[in-house]
Amino acid sequence: MQRKLQRGITLVEMTCVLAVMSLLAGIAGPSMHRWRQRAAADGLLSALTTDIALARITAISRGVTTVVCPSQDAATCHGAAEWSEGWIVFLDDNKDKARQPDEDLISAAGMRRIPSLSFASTTGRRTVRLYPSGMGYGSNLTVTTCLDGVIHAKLVMNNAGRVRVERPRIANPCPDAAAMP
Question: What does the alpha-carbon distance between residue 14 and residue 123 come to, in Å, rounded to a whole number?
Fold first, then answer.
């Protein structure tokens, strides 16, 4: 007696495969969400680092004071320590750290709304002013990036106008923007 060769899969086999795939998706889903948040935060850190470097190069090449400041409308500085709404880079011809309508806007960055992400600088230095020498005199600027209440990274600009990114080795709670020195 010859057996007939079966093609395809049985209902039991299909159910087992779907159960395994559902289990893997349940495990990978939250990890993928955190990975996407970290990637978005890293992209924004990179954009701010690039704009500070652009401001430094512009100040040196044009011989004009250049400012990078937080902005809500991509046209003026808002003066708060919170950079989460975005920032602008402009030539500060009159050296007042506020963009006037006749001052050239070099770059404007708007933030993508990521609910668990915050960017805040210390209250001691809320803007970056780079002089024609490329220097940013005063105290270091530190912009702290937080994800879900934990420090993700710190962008630090020193007085020479150089930028570095520091990443904590252990999870530290994010300081309140209003309480930062």
Answer: 59
Q: Which fold has domain 49-173?
A: minor pseudopilin epsh fold (3.55.40)
C-beta of residue 139 within 8 angstroms of C-beta of residue 127? no
Could you read off the pLDDT of 108-164 as tens digits, one per residue?
988 666 778 888 888 778 888 999 999 988 888 899 999 888 999 999 999 888 999
3-state helix, strand and coil shares in percent for the chain, rounded to the nearest 5: 30, 25, 45
Q: What is the dihedral of CA 109, 112, 114, 117, to 10 degrees?
A: -10
Residue 84 contacts residue 147 (beta carbons within 8 Å): no
Give the whole-angstrom CA distance, residue 91 versus residue 68: 9
Alpha helices in the chain (DSSP H): 11-62
